[in-house]
Amino acid sequence: MKQISKTALENYRAITFRTHPGYRLTNPEEALTFIQQRGYVLFWPCQGIEFPSLWAAVAGNRPVADEHDDPGHITWSWKDEWLGKHLVYYGRVIRRKNTFISLDLLPYFYALSPNYGNPYEDYLIDYSAGKLSAEAKAVYEALLKEGALDTISLRKAARLSSRASDSAFNRALEELQITFRVLPVAVSQAGAWKYAFVYDLTARHYPDLVDKAHPISEWDARRKIIQNALESLGAARISDLNRIFQWEKSLIERTCESLVERKAILKNISLDESSSDYFCVPQFVEKTSALTLTS
């Protein structure tokens, strides 16, 4: 049985998460490289899971500050500058939280979405099957007809202003983002706060995405996404991965076992003599001098 120490795991993540003071991000170019290296990261930390975030890579391992002038909030400006420039994908994905995904990894996520064939028609199949809400359908069809719209104009175009609350409209946008149907592509000075996202259809904003995702099987997509997560985390249990992706446990188990068979990851790893239920990437063994192996 292979054994790793908690200290070694923390040191590994301090480097891959960029939370160690010597590895912090200082400019948008470094931030984009960080997202490319990690494949996907959260915008802000998410309570209950361990995963890299842009905030922590800039501000360190601390809560997101309420003060608007906190230096860590430079990440907000970077995010706004990237929107619509095809540098990185941004939207609500992991745990329904704001997530950055590298364009190299984006087709793998899209391959797991319900956009099987024609994205301009598939939404109707989901709606008929009860898998898409009426509000989400209305928002999608407004964008389909009108093109990219800011949230103020979008709500009017979807005719939700009188029969849907703010929460219903926001849930519709979230529903469409986690299924990779829409995404924010710009910021507009609309509304009372002079700040509103502009949304567009994902398939229209990335017209080659459907073709790139089409040849990727579900299992190839899951293997790629989980292996990528383990490269960031170093080591994790099935329960840890389940909290991140919220997939069925059996899917995560089968994906991890498939990666073990391909020798992409290791299994039966023990953390400080605890039960041997961790999966580990070989890079963790190679790059962490504090790692201890026992047989």
Features:
295 residues, alpha+beta, 4-stranded mixed sheet, 3-stranded antiparallel sheet, globular
Question: Could you please describe the fold and organization of this structure?
Answer:
The protein is of the alpha+beta class and 295 residues long. The protein is 47% helix and 14% strand. It contains 15 helices and 10 strands. It has helices at residues 6-16, 28-38, 54-59, 74-82, 106-111, 119-128, 134-146, 151-157, 166-178, 202-205, 209-213, 218-233, 238-245, 249-261, 282-287, and strands at residues 2-4, 40-42, 89-92, 98-101, 149-150, 182-188, 196-201, 235-237, 266-271, 278-280. It has a 4-stranded mixed sheet with strand order 1-9-10-8. A hairpin with a 5-residue loop joins strand 3 (89-92) and strand 4. It is globular. The model is unreliable at 289-295 (pLDDT under 50).
User: How much β-strand is present in the residues?
Assistant: 5-15%
Instruction: Report the strand count.
Output: 10
Oligomeric organization of the protein chains: single chain
Topology as H/E string? EHHEHHEEHHHEHHEEHHHEHHEEH
Shape: globular
